[in-house]
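DM from R.C. (forwarded with permission)

"hey, sorry to bug you on a friday — could you get me a structure for this? deadline for the figure draft is monday and I only need the backbone to look sensible"
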Amino acid sequence: MSSVVNPFTGRWIMEPKTQNVWGNQHATWFTLMGIGGGLFINRLLFGIELGRFWGMTWADIISLALIGVGGLILIADLGKPLRVLRALLNPRTSWISIGAIADFTFMGLAGLWTLADLNFGGGGLNLTGLPWHGDGTLGLIFQVIAALAAIVVIAYPGLVLASSPSIPFWNSTLIPMQFLVNGFASGLACGLIYAAIVPSDVSGDVLTGWLSLTTGLLVLSVFLQIAHVLNGQYTHVAAKVAVRRLLSGNLQVAYLGGVVLAGLVIPLALIAYALSDSAGSNAAMAAGIAGVLILAGNWLSKHTVIRAGTYASLF
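My reply, with the result:
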């Protein structure tokens, strides 16, 4: 960090400084939360189950595992176990507190609902008789509340960043909006990968529906990326520094090559090919490759926005 003296006021000016508190572990935490929440919601809304294991859908199992691992990263980041308890007690002023409550709510209700599908068969362990099993009234209540918690789980890391006025590039509602869109797109991306691995389980019409939904989310993500860059370019000087790092600085390859090209443009081209008449039997494979790139682009989008964060100048 450098400092200079303002010749008009005679005061020292601290130049914008890149933040180094948040890093790749946070990008991983945010990404796992987004994919996990997106998987659960997409399973509920669009039936993306990814197959079943002992009666339970893989989508729900993976969702619980990802959010559970993300929660463990959060606990490790807080440093001390007692901080986790304090994080639960401050929902009025802390997005992390709200997020922690949503994490526990999701893990509890989604976990119970998923376990109610457990069925070894052949006289083995069978929990399908639990009162919240299936899509009955109680089961739907569990799923809806868990889905609402999942939305918070996806968005709250972005809200944590957006509530940082000292880092102008983060201080925008565009970030939680990107987190939500990327989370839903990542959930669909898992479905596209599954369609490539087990094409016999996904009909052509179902795959077309998933591809169309993914296209809409990726296009929206493109507009949000453009809006975020433009907002940074025409606001605070520290945000301009962040934008320069993304477009022409040390983050250029990761952002333009990873987030924009590999994570958005190429998946859109692959999806367009998969939806075309010429794709034929290659449609599922093209969709699967697009899905892998979307997931990689999701992580890179978190990585680059975190690394680009720059503290505002101090006078």
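R.C.: lifesaver. The beta strands are 3-5, 12-14, 17-18, 52-53, 56-57, 310-311.
me: no worries. The first strand starts at residue 3 and ends at 5.
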